[in-house]
Amino acid sequence: MTTSPNIVLIFVDDMGYADIGSFGSPIARTPNLDRLALEGQKWTSFYAPASVCTPSRAGLLTGRYAVRSGMAGLVHARHVLFPTSLGGLPQSEVTIAELLQQKGYVSAALGKWHLGHLPEFLPTSQGFESYYGIPYSNDMNMPGGNETPWALENFFAPPDIETWDVPLMQDEEILERPANQFTLSKRYTEHAIQFMKESHEAGKPFFLYLAHNMPHTPLFTSEAFDGVSAGGAYGDVIEEIDWSVGEIIAALKDMDIDDNTLVVFTSDNGPWLTMKTHSGSAGRFRDGKGTTWEGGMRVPAIFWWPGKVQPRTVTGLGSALDLMPTFAGISGTVLPDDRIYDGVDLSPTLFADSDSPRDTLYFYRFTDIFAVRKGRYKAHFSVYGAFGGDGRTDLNEPELYDLESDPGEQYNIAAEHPDIVAELKALAETQAASVKPVVNQLELYPEGQKRGEDETRPWNEKTEDE
Ligand code: MG
Fold it and tell me: Are 307 and 52 within 8 A, CB to CB?
């Protein structure tokens, strides 16, 4: 293995499984991502660690389900961090950036953070040398603060940066407020290229964590991408992200370090279907963001490293939880042995012909396991959102789906396979028992604030009294 390869992790927000051309999008042209998928590995059963932003990102950057770090919300409470939150990813957690410090990597975080906006939780306190981005979601801080009734109309009006009073930060300082969201994707790309060049010139291996705010609503593009797609505002945003990917690959080639750089592209959760024409698509997978159906957590994933990653389509299971152990493997760093990791090193699949080493996945919602997938089968014990209307429903009888013959989770076969249901239930119980109680970071906010405000407010308000 090459010594200390560079790592570029491009993490997009709320992009659905079928929002890239090569994953089935009929509306957006994504030639750069399509080329990476063809030249590298396209994973078709790759999952986000959670179906909403904060716990997904905690899982990504620590290799551990968010329930272990206190970064998973409680039901009828906050599901993600908010601008008034007092919590964040605890210092006791080890991030990918901190892991890579063992081998002298320099790391930059760009874009959405959402793991705590107070100084002790920002990227510069979590192993990253620099940060440039919005510390939480780009739809937060509407006028009047977070007590403002959540209005879908705001999102469909002509884009106006004043509607969302979100800060753009450089390290721990606010550079701009409200952030000019029109130019975010463009500016993140420019900063990414500058960081890669500076690191390369300094002779240091680098880890670039580029977490685009888009395509999370409100949707903004730079002028060059306004109206270019056949898919409205959402398609335009996807085409600008694809442009950004192309610029980054071009910069790697210019510096002649493309053959020493692993590039990974994936999404933090499925499409936010509540946003109607401004949401993405999970294709044939059921439902979207906020749910533990496939559409909420199965996301597009591409691995690219010329000459190293074997070009093919992988149908075996993978998770963003696996990225940290995989990066440890390729960088020759060692994961701490004092804690449980939920990820596995995917290197045997990336670099050779092996099947994926992962065969089981847990679908957390809040701090509970709502579903388990092992091989082709997935059992649901609780559901949220899509099923039977709103809110959380604990199923009296678990449901079982065969994802190979029924990827859309339409035909419940639990009655025919009680043995498989029992096996998956036992797995969930063992996994749940492995989690030690910790402080819930999402429950830390000023006294007197209401609990039920979160990204899924339309559902949550209806279910507050349940
Ligand atoms: Mg998201």
Answer: no
State yes or no: cis peptide before 418, omega within 30 of 0: no
User: If phi over 0 gives left and psi between -120 and 50 gives alpha, with beta otherwise, what is residue 133?
Assistant: left
- The whole-model pTM stands at 0.95
| Pair of tokens at residue 100 | 């890579």
Domain ranges of the chain: 6-359, 362-441
pLDDT of 453 over the 70 cut: no
What is the model's pLDDT at position 457?
Answer: 42
For residue 10, list its beta bridge partners: 210, 265
Q: Are strands 368-374 and 301-304 parallel, antiparallel or unpaired?
A: unpaired
pLDDT band per the 50, 70, 90 thresholds, residue 143: low
Residue 455 has a pLDDT of 38
By residue count, the chain amounts to 466
Q: What is the dotted CATH code of the domain comprising 362-441?
A: 3.30.1120.10
What's the CATH fold of domain 6-359? Answer: Alkaline Phosphatase, subunit A (3.40.720)
User: 100 near 107, Cβ under 8 Å?
Assistant: yes
**How far apart are the CA of 301 and the centre of ligand 1, in A?**
15
* Residue 267 binned pLDDT confidence (cut-offs 50, 70, 90): very high
SS3 state of residue 322: helix
- What does pLDDT average to over the chain? 93
Instruction: Tell me the catalytic residues.
Output: 53, 114
Cα dihedral value 303, 241, 219, 128, nearest 10: 70
Element of type H or E holding 100: helix 96-100
Residue 464 pLDDT greater than 50, yes or no: no
Q: 253 C-alpha vs ligand 1 centroid, how far in Å?
A: 30
| Cα(83) to centroid(ligand 1), Å | 16
Measure the N-to-C terminal CA separation of the chain; round to a whole number of Å: 54
Mean pLDDT of 313-327: 98
